[in-house]
Amino acid sequence: MDVSGLIATLESEGHSLAHTAERLGAGVEVPTCPGWRVRDLLLHIGGVHRWAGTVVAESRREPLHLERAEGISAHLPTDGELVGWFRRGHADLLKALRNAPEDLRCWAFLTAPTPLAFWARRQAHETTVHRVDVESAAGGVGRVEPHVATDGIDELLGGFVPRARTGLHSDPPTSMSVRTTDTGARWLLHVGRGPVTVERSSGPADTVVSGTASDVYLALWNRLPLRELDVAGSEELLLRWPETVRIRWG
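The line above is the sequence of TIGR03083 family protein; the predicted structure tokens follow.
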């Protein structure tokens, strides 16, 4: 996806998230985020948007270190103010991204063609995943557009999973192929004692995981049970996935 498409996704997903949260109310539990209620989710994503927007708008070369994302806001909103507070942070982030020059120079924490592309992509998927979370609080099973889901799988597998802090390892080494049945995307993961390496290709693998782009996206982001996917071969990596591939704040 290009930057404009990612920003458009961020915009639409944020509007959907706010609409559902407003309908539910702050006190409803969020099943896909154990221990959280809608209030906690809005505080988190509203803080993340402000944090990311500040990095982009100020062209910051160093990260803003916060114990919690919402710590960027001096005064936290009451329950009645939460949705409006979220919407303002969302709007400010969209403005920062749209006003940023293509050659923006600022801090980013994953490899990307440009810092602007990184932030547009990261915030599009941060917001998409949490939109699905809010919909789970409404009793629904969120779905993600195939092209958006495919891009998000690529960010997760190509960006987050190979980082040293991700605890996905195997001894002896093993491999896993991830395939989307509707968009034809392919990734091949090589998992050993060191960092995971990823190829954007198909090939023989000890484990083959396949499903629609939306289902694969949600399952790999731990928002859908992995048993919902088609699995051939060893299930060892998948059994360990929910505990070893978890993207946390900080």
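Note on the example: The CA atoms of residues 119 and 168 lie 25 Å apart. The longest helix spans residues 115-137.
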